[in-house]
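[Protein data]
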Amino acid sequence: SDSLITAWHNNLLVGLGNAISDGYLTVYYPHLLVLPDYQGKGIGKKLMAWLENKAKQKSYEIIWLDAMNEQQQSFQFYKKLGYKYHSHIFLPFDLLHEAVRKMNQLYKVI
C-alpha cells in the first residue's frame, strides 16, 4: 500500500482508506470503509481528503477508484467529492452474486 489511514472512536476502528500507485502519475484507491453506524458523520470525507493530500504531495495527477453499482450511496459520495464516471466493469468472480459484480470506475484529476 502506498498510503494507509485509519479512523478510530475510542478503541474501535471505525474507518480506513488506502492507496496504491504506479509511482509516477496515477493512484488507485482500492478501499474506503466506514462502519455503517459512523457513516454520514464526515469520516469518509476526512479519510479521502487525507489520501488526496498525500497524492498531491507525491505529484500524482489522477486518482482512480471503483464503486459497486449496487452501492449507490458510495457512488453519489464520490461524485460529491468531484469524481467523474469513466466506465464500468463486471468482476469475473464466480463466487460473487451477479448483482454485485458491476463496478463503476471513477476518476479525479488533481
Q: What stands out?
A: The first helix runs from residue 43 to 57. Residues 61 and 110 are 5 Å apart (CA to CA). The radius of gyration is 14 Å.
